[in-house]
Amino acid sequence: MSKQRLKRILITGGAGFLGSHMCERLVGEGHDVICLDNFFTSQKFNVAHLLDRPNFELIRHDVTLPVFLEVDQIYHMACPAAPGHYQFNPIKTIKTSVLGSVNMLGMAKRCGARILLASTSEIYGDPTVHPQPESYWGNVNPIGIRSCYDEGKRVAETLFMDYHRMNKVDIRIVRIFNTYGPRMHPFDGRVVSNFIRQALTGQPITIFGEGEQTRSFCYRDDLVEGIVRMMNCEDNFIGPVNIGNPNEFTIAQLASKVLELTGSKSTIERRPLPPDDPTRRQPDITLARKMLKWEPSTELRVGLEKTIDWFQTIRMEDYRPPTPNFA
Ligand code: NAD
Ligand code: UDP
Q1: DSSP class of residue 105?
Q2: Nearest 5 degrees, angle CA 264-CA 266-CA 271?
Q3: For residue 252, what is the enclosing H or E element?
Q4: pTM
Q5: Are 249 and 209 in contact (CB under 8 A)?
Q6: May I ask the CATH architecture of the domain 8-318?
Q7: Rounded Cα distance, 258 and 298, in Å
Q8: What angle is formed at CA 147 by the lines to CA 92 and CA 35, rounded to 5 degrees?
Q9: Among 88, 139, 197, 245, which residue's Cβ finds the most Cβ atoms within 10 Å?
Q10: Does any ligand 2 atom lie closer than 6 A to the CB of residue 274?
Q11: What does the pLDDT look like over 50-76, one tens digit per residue?
Q12: Would you list the domain boundaries of the chain?
């Protein structure tokens, strides 16, 4: 890998919620950043403020198709991430994880670039070990409605490891746990965006099941810092490493917090629990603490306040549902 300080960096899925913040951060550091996205679950306006920067370039492209670029680092983040988005076209979702990873790993191999995979806590499925360390192999349904995402990412991890072992590609794997913050798609159906949008518009807060299932929510700035540290970690540490916030909350507790912080009078509405919805989820971040000297610092209350402030500035009608795309 090139040792110069300023690098040529490709971010696939760079117009998405997390990708756009990665673009901002790396453009701000002076790197030459290429954002590649097919806008399946995002819109150009997420990165429009970067377009006049001389070190930023935007390419509309689908990662399931080959592309030839010359880069030093690749953050491979292209993939729909919200259940409603990845279940919209499950075949496309798994193609994105599998074919997209093959194409990006091929590019990394050709360029001698370092490549980082944005993997997920979904690797662990509905975990029987709690909290989840990286050594846990998971409990994933291979034929359910979440499988296109979970198994797609598991194959992506396998491909990364095999390109590393066989072709010496310089890889990094991060397993991201539920992350939230400004620029989430307001209609992505994820719990934080749903609850905030519902609270601000006076609609009922939809709790699936009893609301006793747990998630551990990480604020996007903490996450971005963890990912960048992993990419630049020079200790031959390739991961996988969990990046997430270990503070665990039930979904009912999240609903109460959102109601309190928005001052909303929204009622609570129970909906059936979707199939295979994980019961508990909490990252064990011992490895990230040790190897990356990283841990999250944003309390849920503070992160939610910032996210709520941002939701109050957007026009919901500017956001469209995922692009109909049956390729
Ligand atoms: P997002 O949907 O906002 O971003 C994904 C981006 O990828 C979008 O801009 C989308 O248009 C693009 N994309 C999708 N399919 C593509 C394709 N075939 N070709 C090119 N671009 C494509 O989601 P996000 O939350 O920003 O997630 C980013 C990455 O992080 C994903 O890989 C996701 O699996 C991973 N991740 C996120 C979370 C989280 O809580 N946000 C948790 C675990 C893993
Ligand atoms: N959830 C909910 N109401 C909603 C959206 C989600 O109760 O309006 C629940 C969902 O069933 C899950 C949790 O919140 O248990 C997190 O869901 P999300 O889609 O955000 O992410 P994931 O299940 O992939 O962690």
Answers
A1: H
A2: 140
A3: helix 251-262
A4: 0.96
A5: no
A6: 3-Layer(aba) Sandwich (3.40)
A7: 16
A8: 45
A9: 245
A10: yes
A11: 999 999 999 999 999 999 999 999 999
A12: 8-318
Pairing of strands 73-76, 241-243: unpaired
Identify whether the C-beta of residue 147 lies closer than 8 Å to the C-beta of residue 87. no
Q: CA angle 235-81-205, nearest 5°?
A: 125
64 lines ligand 1 (CB under 6 A): yes
Region of 270 on the Ramachandran plot (φ > 0 left; ψ -120 to 50 alpha; else beta):
beta
Please indicate whether residue 17, judged by its CB atom, sits closer than 6 Å to ligand 1: yes
Residue 16 dihedral angles phi and psi, to the nearest 5°: -80, -175
* Ligand 1 center to 285 CA (angstroms): 22
Tell me how crowded residue 275 is: count the other CB atoms within 10 A of its CB: 9
Query: What type of residue sits at position 153?
Result: K
pLDDT tens digits, 168-214: 999 999 999 999 999 999 998 999 999 999 999 999 999 999 999 99
Pick the atom of ligand 1 nearest to 18's CA.
26
Measure CA of the first residue to CA of the last residue in the chain; give whole Å: 34
